[in-house]
């Protein structure tokens, strides 16, 4: 029996140590906001925070987590950086199909927590492992910058662009 700290609550779980965290979150605890994409740490859909750091839950065995705090998309809005990122996502209207977006938001919130005013290079480094089949990359970048600066002027350059324009 393991006890996981998820979104500020203790969850005793009777699972094998080598079960990936993603399976425990979705199928045992019932938090389905975190998505399965590739299962091999290549797409970022399953991103959660471990002590505030973005990790791929599809390849993280629960037995390796210990007492570290897990935060998922269901609770990231309770953190200052997560709140800013989620509001910017709404303001910029980032989402298309939505499948990748919980992972995108988790990576972006971890970046903003670590680097309050990220450069383009910082954003590229933090977000390059999060794939979006709908190609929302331009809006993701704009939303991260808006969350960091609080300025909305960046949006004006997007008004005439179709959603899904390639980065
Ligand atoms: S499902 Fe984990 S990185 Fe793709
Ligand atoms: S919004 Fe559809 S995959 Fe990213």
Automatic annotation (TrEMBL):
This is (2Fe-2S)-binding protein. Transmembrane segments: none annotated. SUPFAM superfamilies: 2Fe-2S ferredoxin-like, CO dehydrogenase ISP C-domain like. Residues 1-76 form the 2Fe-2S ferredoxin-type domain. It holds the Pfam family Fer2. Keywords: 2Fe-2S, Iron, Iron-sulfur, Metal-binding, Oxidoreductase. InterPro entries: 2Fe-2S-bd (IPR002888), 2Fe-2S-bd_dom_sf (IPR036884), 2Fe-2S_ferredoxin-like_sf (IPR036010), 2Fe-2S_ferredoxin-type (IPR001041), 2Fe2S_fd_BS (IPR006058), Beta-grasp_dom_sf (IPR012675), Diverse_Oxidoreductases (IPR051452). PROSITE patterns: 2FE2S_FER_1, 2FE2S_FER_2.
